């Protein structure tokens, strides 16, 4: 079937990006995935017209340096293909830091994404010193910060975007579980919360690693 042929079915893959892959930009990640689809000879649908191109879309791309076990990418197939075979072929064509974990027909629209959950690991701190600082920080009725919007920067209360923000000591480290609002207009980047904490508590840690663990709809069901 020609590249611009009739698309038979939509596919959404969920993949992880860990280690060095956290530093791949969104544009380079898109190119990486397109190359992998070509190398694996998966029958992907191309747009029609004078400049046909492989049509792939991502939900909620992450900031550079963030790891994730819940990235998603949608594309269309021009032929039926068993999902286990698709996963195997893609993983053979991808670098080891990027792994396809699941493939299925999309069940939800991108607009259904309402929350994103993260695991933050705090480095260079003593848990018994850090935890009271975090508890006092997150207990504040207001955490004001400058947030970038389509119309520019505006001052917002970060507490309005936080669904959960608990911290605990795990194997000698501090691990923070965050549930933040997500979406085109209502999303909160965890780096804003980290920056606000650091401004109030300078020199309280050396750095924080961020891992996205899941995307959720408004009823807290997984985005699939």
UniProtKB/TrEMBL annotation:
Top-rank taxon: Bacteria
InterPro entries documented for this protein: DUF2344
Domain DUF2344: 11-190
Protein name: Radical SAM-linked protein
Taxonomic source organism: Acetanaerobacterium elongatum
């Amino acid at each position: 079937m020609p590249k611009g042929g009739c698309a038979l079915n939509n596919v959404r893959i969920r993949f992880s990006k860990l280690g060095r892959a956290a530093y791949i930009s969104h544009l380079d990640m898109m190119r990486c995935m397109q190359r992998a689809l070509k190398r694996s000879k998966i029958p992907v649908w191309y747009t029609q017209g004078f400049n046909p191109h492989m049509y792939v879309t991502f939900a909620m791309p992450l900031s550079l340096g963030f790891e994730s076990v819940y990235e998603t990418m949608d594309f269309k197939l021009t032929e039926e293909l068993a999902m286990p075979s698709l996963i195997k072929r893609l993983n053979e064509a991808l670098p080891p830091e990027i792994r396809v974990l699941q493939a299925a027909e999309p069940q939800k629209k991108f607009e259904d994404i309402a929350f994103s959950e993260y695991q933050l690991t705090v480095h260079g701190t003593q848990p018994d010193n850090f935890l009271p600082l975090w508890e006092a920080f997150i207990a504040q009725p207001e955490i004001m910060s400058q947030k970038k919007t389509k119309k520019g920067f505006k001052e917002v209360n970060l507490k309005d975007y936080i669904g959960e923000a608990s911290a605990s000591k795990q194997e000698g480290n501090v691990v923070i579980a965050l549930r933040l609002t997500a979406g085109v207009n209502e999303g909160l980047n965890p780096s804003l919360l980290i920056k606000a904490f650091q401004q109030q508590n300078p020199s309280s840690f050396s750095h924080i690693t961020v891992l996205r663990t899941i995307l959720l709809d408004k009823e807290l069901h997984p985005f699939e």
